Amino acid sequence: MINTDGFFKGIFKNARENSVIILDNKGVILQVNQSFITAFGYKTRDIVGKHLRILFTKEDRKLKRPEAEVTSALELGSKSDNNYLVQKDGVHVWVMGETVSVTNSTNEEFLVKIIHNIHAQKQLERFLLQSHEFIDIIFDSIKDTGLIILDSSLRIVKSNRAFNKIFGLKKIPRPGDKLSDIDHPFWRNRSIKTELLNILVNRRLVKNTPYTIPGKGGETHISITSKLMEGEEKEKQVLLVITVDQNG
User: Fold this and answer.
1) Which pLDDT score is estimated for 13?
2) Smallest Cα–Cα separation from 115: which of 191, 44, 169, 37?
3) Using an 8 Å Cβ cutoff, are 53 and 64 in contact?
4) Which of 12, 116, 135, 227 has a CA that sits 20 to 30 A from residue 206's CA?
5) Which residues pair with 116 in a beta bridge?
6) Cβ neighbour number for residue 103 with a 10 Å cutoff
């Protein structure tokens, strides 16, 4: 059987992306690796001998989450968590990690806490959420220009109120509806579908291209400009910007 002691020492010493903390079975910090010192800014003397609580936020300490993590890891063998930890300078960083119970050759029980910093990912998630909210506000604030986003299957991702007004729609298009579900003959036209597919597949964009749409009050002259976009999971999407020709 391979002696794994050397493997652990190698991981503890050489890890760069993951911080490693060794705790006793009461949650007191016994040792930290260089990656932890670099990432969190504590000196060894600042942290060794202190309870794990020192790394948790005030809110989590009040809820006794550090103690619960220690208890769960001892009872279950391991405990995974995503939460904030506090750097030496007081900055909160979002991390994911696992605390694992281990026993040495003399049957002493310790805990090894492995920490991976995913703060940048958390910030990105927040930015994307805020961006979606911002886009919704922009879409609804544009009064005179119709906007619609279609995915690669020509299903509706988003449209604004001006789009509904231009085409006199009583039934509001919903995300996920097919292009042919739009209650207007213009969007059921085979040539329009072909042009949209050319935009998505062959990147043949249109700019201020004139079209005529029928209506109860007569014809309406519009111009369409397309913009190729990238949606979730890098799926191609197309934004159509539709303006009414006031002189038409």
Assistant:
1) 63
2) 37
3) no
4) 135
5) 18, 96
6) 10
User: Which residue stretches of the chain have pLDDT < 70?
Assistant: 1-17, 119-135, 215-217, 230-234, 246-248
Token digits of residue 137: 């506000």
Please report the domains of the chain, with CATH numbers, ordered by start residue: 5-117 (3.30.450.20), 129-244 (3.30.450.20)
Structure tokens at 62: 């009040």
Which tokens is 84 given? 């904030």
Instruction: State the Cα–Cα distance between residues 135 and 50, nearest whole angstrom.
Output: 47
For the segment 147-185, what is each residue's pLDDT rounded down to a tens digit? 998 988 899 988 888 899 888 888 888 999 998 889 888
- Helices marked H in 15-114: 34-40, 44-47, 58-62, 65-76
Q: What is the DSSP letter of 155?
A: B
Contact 230, 236 (CB under 8 A): yes
Joined tokens for residue 236? 């191609």
As given in the structure block, the two tokens for residue 166 are: 């231009």
- Distance from C-alpha of 54 to C-alpha of 41, rounded to nearest angstrom: 13
CA distance 248 to 244: 8
Q: For residue 153, give every residue at least 6 positions away whose Cβ sits within 8 Å of its Cβ, in sequence order, or none.
A: none
Instruction: Give 95-122 pLDDT, tens digit per residue.
Output: 888 899 988 777 889 999 999 887 666 6
Q: Could you give the residue ranges of the DSSP H alpha helices within the chain?
A: 5-14, 34-40, 44-47, 58-62, 65-76, 119-141, 161-166, 190-202
Q: What pLDDT was estimated at residue 3?
A: 46
Q: Report the largest interatomic distance among the alpha carbons of the chain, rounded to a whole angstrom.
A: 91
